[in-house]
Amino acid sequence: MTPLTQNQTDIVDPSIIERDELVLITGSNGFIGCKVVETLLESGHTYLRCFVRPTASLKRLNEVLNRYPGASVEITKGNLLSREDCSQAARDVRVMYHLAAGFDKSYASAFMNSVLTTRNLLDAALRQSVMKRFVNVSSFAVYSGTGLKRGAVLDESCEIETPSYGRYEAYAYAKIKQEELVLEYSRKTGLSYVILRPGAVYGPGKAGITGRVGIDTFGVYLHMGGSKRIPFTYVDNCASAIVLAGLKPGVDGEIFNVVDDDLPRSRKFLRLYKKNVKRFLSIPVPYPLAYALCALWEKYSNWSEGQLPPVFNRSRCAAEWKGHRYSNEKLKRLLGWTPKVGFEEASQNFFKYLRDTAH
Amino acid sequence: MNPIRVAIIGCGKIAEQHASQIRRIAGSQLVGVCDSEKRMADQLAERYQVEGSFDDVQQLLKVARPDVVHITTPPQSHFKLASECLRAGCHVYVEKPFSIDLEEARAMVALAEELGLRITAGHNYQFNPEMVRMRELVRSGSLGGKPVHIESIFSYDLGDASYVNALLGDKKHWVRMLPGKLLQNVISHGIAKIAEFWDSPDYTVTAHGYSSSKLQSAGESEIIDELRVVISDGRQLTAYFTFTTQVAPPVQELRVFGPRGTLIVDGLHRSVIELTGANSAFKSYLNFTLPQFNLARQYMRNMFSNLAAFLRADFHMDIGMRNLFAEFYQSIQSGGAPPISHREIIFTAAVMDEIFRQLDAAGKDVSMLAESRATMSLSGERA
Description:
The structure holds 2 protein chains of 2 kinds. By secondary structure, chain A is α/β, with parallel strands linked by helices. Chain A is about 40% helix and about 15% strand. Chain A has a 7-stranded parallel beta sheet with strand order 3-2-1-4-5-7-12, with helices on both faces. A 3-stranded mixed beta sheet of chain A has the order 9-10-13. In chain A, β1, α2 (about 30-40) and β2 (about 45-50) form a beta-alpha-beta unit. In chain A, α2 crosses α7. Chain B has 13 helices and 14 strands. By secondary structure, chain B is α/β, with parallel strands linked by helices. In chain B, the strands form 2 sheets. In chain B, strands 13-12-11-7-10-9-8-14 form an 8-stranded mixed beta sheet. In chain B, strands 3-2-1-4-5-6 form a 6-stranded parallel beta sheet, sandwiched between helices.
């Protein structure tokens, strides 16, 4: 990790909590979660509770924790589908970073592991009534690209995918429903929350190329719409945005997109990947052709009553491959966030990790 | 004919498959979904545009007024829910495993018979195209008489992280609470294939089971994932059932051996191969070369037949489920025989019960090989 500068740690000051007050991080042994833990410790927070699944490998998390022997870190193992486990996780917590999510391909499982878990966690936290803020880490996947022109700016005011299941992507559906749940709780209970929607998070610890570049299917890599920019956020930059969102005063009820500044075009990223990680054949598919193929696939799927599921469809094509510009203006303005690691350094770190782990 | 009104109780992963296949059956209408977790019912109802979403079974039955209820909850609740639905006058489709034990299976079947309603089990693999083809061949006399021996091999991939991690990581997972744990949740598909052919009144069951080294190295000592079973009527018919998580590539195969022919049904590749006298009619060294031509021709026929079905858009991954639903609804509307006989349902439950009893009796240390045998009657009574 690139160490936070003095300036960055100061950004968290003033904070809505003291540095020795309890902070919960769910999904804390995940790719982003570990960095959030590290960023909190780096910025001087000394009392953390890391919630992990009972079967989770703690190797990555322990590596972080070992560097901060003075911090008081509880590792709580459990299942967020269990209300009892949620009660234990939420006990005395002042700020809750909720990163755990369901990545299952089935809608029911994704819904259970993103929405019901969040509901259980919120119920547990609200029973305690000491929580000051709930940080819900959502995703760019919630956005619809259908109504946006190519090259238009995608910011926090843009449309959410409607209907929520229209893209045939369980993860996006569950994230939309999770956000709806947080808003529902805010209306009903006055819950203080912040929602973050990171773009494509990358960095050491992440395997492969984001689907926003293209798809690897039937042994062929289709590079969809090469001129589009990829809404990347390097994991360190993303983690610092998440940490700030939990601590900064005066941002309750806000939603933030998290993307870096110098976003590469898809073509450039793929070229760098091939040069630095491994060479493979990719077939460029211009966006209009990608859209036509997706429309065709969708039509066949409907005609055949789902013999081939509509995994390629116009909504997905528009959301992932159309090519928009992305704004992080709100993140900078309200949270004082700046991406400390630029694309060049970030991509080299990422590629080195991929080379080293032979992904 | 009025559309058949269908409801689903239990809105988890498998309910999704049910909803999408019910929608494909002309003359059926999904009128209600129910889950004790209302948000789960709502998400299914929203995505499938179902009018009724409930968290109370009585409300579902009263308001949605279904003709058929699909029960897709964990098996611990099957008996209670099926009984409730049957008593409300609904026909019932019960996902596999049909019941917790033989006693519950018998009670559900008896209640349906008493009330004049249809009940079936979710043995949908029985209705995949290759099984339908196999039945056609059996009816046409391919075996040359009654089966002499049956082998059912069912391998299972423990690499499905979404299921296995949930199971291994949660000591309170509902699958762990089943008497047969993992086995109970998956082996009914393989046992049901044997059940179809079993009409002998008495039989013995001998079971061997243990935890694979893979599970043991993961610190798992409760779950048995390797099982070998021998079933015999002591006179004319024997069957082997194999369940394994350690075989790669996976195999799901049924072999039915008759006095004059053998059928090999490959569930993973949707193929049926017929071994008849023609395969062994060659002399000397010709026997090592010419039969292969016949086999190759059969594989080609399977390939073209599968391809043709795909091009007709009649080859869905869940086609067995759709076929079973359609036949079940048809039997309700026409008053004909149910697609799966009650005898088969009871046989499957009885054999499973006996397997779990033997494994349990072999000791709590499941890493030890368990071996036992018992004699059963067709009704599932232990002699």
